[in-house]
Recover the amino acids of this structure.
């Protein structure tokens, strides 16, 4: 067992007959910040509930910090700080008394509780609200209290389920910054259905859809892949009675994403394998009298790469 802090091995989860996780496997190394990315209903929360021993998998094996979630749930929980989709806050408690309570739940020795609570209050910027009733806090502060209870026992691993959902833009930036700063001390797994959220915070993403892992890559590499494609919007004027399909049939190294013809005008959205393939395409068509009226390079955004991954069928990888 190298420095993997989480290993999910062929994990499936059924709710009744419904398969929410389908033979999912991935591993996470100590010190990583990994995003579980997928549309609503993809199975992100389910995967997190299994890792945190909140509920058991139907089949497969999960280890956290070397402990099996079936055999050693107490050890697993000691190593995890968990912020569920709905933070487990007692709304009628003050921040201070809630965090003392959370410390006790996590079996922090009595004599260390005050200093740990003091530390997390400082760390998460809760000083000015520490005597307030949780119910009266803003959503952003509630989320900070949720993060505070997650780190109070110094877990190796933080599991944060959609930590910025429902926050306003200013609070989102604050929570994001806090998460990044916590990442120095903990391995972090967070989930989101928003690509930009994950790409801004995480080094690596695991993209899931309908309970299956469909891609896994570094954010950097995903971005490079998106930027390395050679797509063009092209407007052509064809000679009279020009058969575009027949004339380009021998040029295999491009694919059309869209083609609309209006009389002798042809609008194309074409994806070329290499820059040179565009040149071949251009030379061949101009030699036949086709006029290139407009050519606009078009780079897909990360968002579009994500959408094409999560909307097209049969694009599994391992
Ligand atoms: P995500 O967090 O990615 O939005 P979830 O893990 O919450 O997805 O849910 C995955 C799928 O499992 C969804 O279709 C959801 O409706 C279903 N599901 C989640 N929890 C339960 C449950 N307790 N009982 C039945 N179905 C559930
Ligand atoms: Mg969820």
């Amino acid at each position: 067992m190298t420095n993997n802090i989480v290993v999910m091995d062929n994990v499936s989860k059924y709710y009744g007959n419904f398969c929410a996780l389908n033979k999912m496997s991935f591993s996470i190394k100590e010190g990583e910040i990994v995003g579980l990315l997928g549309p609503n209903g993809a199975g992100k929360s389910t995967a997190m509930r299994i890792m945190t021993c909140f509920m058991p998998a139907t089949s497969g094996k999960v280890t956290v910090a070397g402990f099996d979630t079936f055999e050693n749930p107490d050890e697993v929980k000691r190593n995890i700080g968990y912020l569920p989709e709905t933070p487990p806050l007692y709304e009628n408690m003050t921040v201070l008394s809630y965090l003392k309570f959370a410390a006790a739940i996590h079996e922090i020795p009595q004599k260390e509780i005050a200093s740990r609570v003091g530390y997390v209050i400082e760390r998460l910027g809760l000083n000015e609200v520490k005597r307030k009733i949780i119910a009266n806090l803003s959503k952003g502060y509630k989320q900070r209290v949720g993060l505070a209870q997650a780190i109070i026992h110094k877990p190796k691993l933080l599991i944060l389920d959609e930590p910025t959902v429902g926050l306003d833009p200013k609070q989102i930036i604050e929570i994001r910054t806090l998460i990044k700063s916590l990442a120095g001390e903990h391995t972090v797994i967070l989930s989101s259905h928003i690509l930009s959220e994950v790409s801004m915070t995480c080094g690596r993403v695991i993209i899931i859809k309908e309970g299956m892992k469909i891609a896994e890559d570094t954010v950097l590499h995903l971005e490079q892949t998106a930027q390395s494609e050679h797509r063009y919007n092209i407007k052509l004027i064809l000679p009279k009675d020009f058969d575009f399909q027949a004339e380009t049939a021998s040029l295999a190294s491009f694919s059309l994403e869209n083609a609309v013809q209006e009389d002798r005008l042809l609008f194309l959205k074409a994806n070329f394998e290499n820059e040179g393939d565009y040149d071949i395409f251009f030379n061949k068509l101009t030699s036949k009298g086709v006029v290139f009226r407009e050519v606009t390079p078009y780079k897909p955004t990360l968002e579009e790469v994500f959408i094409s991954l999560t909307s097209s069928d049969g694009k599994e990888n391992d």
In short: The pocket of adenosine-5'-diphosphate (ligand 1) is lined by residues 15, 18, 20, 38, 40-46 (CB under 6 Å).
